[in-house]
């Protein structure tokens, strides 16, 4: 997997075996060949694609399937210069946190008493088992939603289904209607399932006051993990 040919290998060589083996058929499917051809054509036209090719599967690289304890779903990568690096809602150090991420930090302050960090890089969460998965893994610079409907959605549907089939209880944090629809098949413990599904409004400034603020997703996730014999997530980002 490299920047010029990021999905040339099936399965992608940098993927942890816990992902690569069950997703091998997906990588070999015509859909992924079409997606690869689309991305290469876009680059050949001089279009800039975010994140860089080596980070398309960053969420899976950092959080092996057998380590997933929490899933947070996003929609598309950030399309601004230097923002996206393969983890939903996260930006690279030195990049100003976007409004949705600022609101996530505000809710962390209310929920856990944690002061907002001075950066927006959520790698610390991913390394603890928080799968920070976007539905679509690439975007053209400055063109929001430009790679929707090209095949990524089917790939990430398969990723979510793999997590949902795990025997280990997992917390699914679904912010907004898009994420809730994408993972609608995941059964909450209140419905007889084994996973905890936390649904609320999206942290975007357009909707955060309609149910995101006050939803306490971080403490609820940790309470569930502890109740099922798992260590809590350390949500405090190291400076």
TrEMBL record:
Alphabetized Pfam families for the sequence: UDG
InterPro entries in the cross-refs: UDG_fam1, Ura-DNA_Glyclase_AS, Uracil-DNA_glycosylase-like, Uracil-DNA_glycosylase-like_sf
Cellular compartment(s): Cytoplasm
Domain Uracil-DNA glycosylase-like: 61-225
CDD domains (UniProt xref): UDG-F1-like (cd10027)
Keywords: Cytoplasm, DNA damage, DNA repair, Glycosidase, Hydrolase
GO molecular-function terms, A-Z: uracil DNA N-glycosylase activity
Major place of residence: cytoplasm
Enzyme class per UniProt: hydrolase
Active-site residue numbers: 76 (proton acceptor)
Protein name in UniProt: Uracil-DNA glycosylase
Species, as recorded: Sphingobium fluviale
């Amino acid at each position: 997997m490299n920047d010029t040919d990021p999905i040339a290998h099936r399965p992608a060589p940098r993927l942890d075996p816990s992902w690569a083996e069950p997703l091998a058929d997906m990588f070999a499917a015509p859909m992924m060949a079409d997606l690869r051809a689309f991305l290469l054509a876009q680059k050949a036209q001089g279009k800039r694609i975010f994140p860089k090719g080596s980070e398309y599967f960053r969420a899976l690289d950092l959080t092996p399937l057998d380590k997933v304890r929490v899933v947070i779903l996003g929609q598309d990568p950030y399309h601004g210069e230097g923002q996206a690096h393969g983890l939903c809602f996260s930006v690279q150090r030195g990049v100003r946190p976007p409004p949705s991420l600022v609101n996530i930090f505000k809710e962390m302050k209310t929920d856990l008493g944690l002061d907002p960090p001075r950066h927006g890089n959520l790698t610390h969460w991913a390394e603890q088992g928080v799968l920070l998965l976007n539905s679509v893994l690439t975007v053209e610079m400055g063109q929001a939603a430009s790679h929707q409907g090209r095949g990524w959605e089917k790939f990430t549907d398969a990723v979510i289904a793999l997590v949902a089939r795990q025997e280990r209880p997992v917390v699914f944090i679904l912010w907004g209607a898009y994420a809730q629809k994408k993972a609608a098949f995941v059964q909450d413990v209140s419905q007889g399932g084994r996973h905890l599904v936390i649904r609320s409004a999206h942290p975007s400034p357009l909707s955060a006051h309609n149910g995101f603020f006050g939803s306490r997703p971080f403490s609820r996730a940790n309470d569930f993990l502890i109740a099922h014999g798992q260590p809590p997530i350390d949500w405090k980002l190291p400076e």
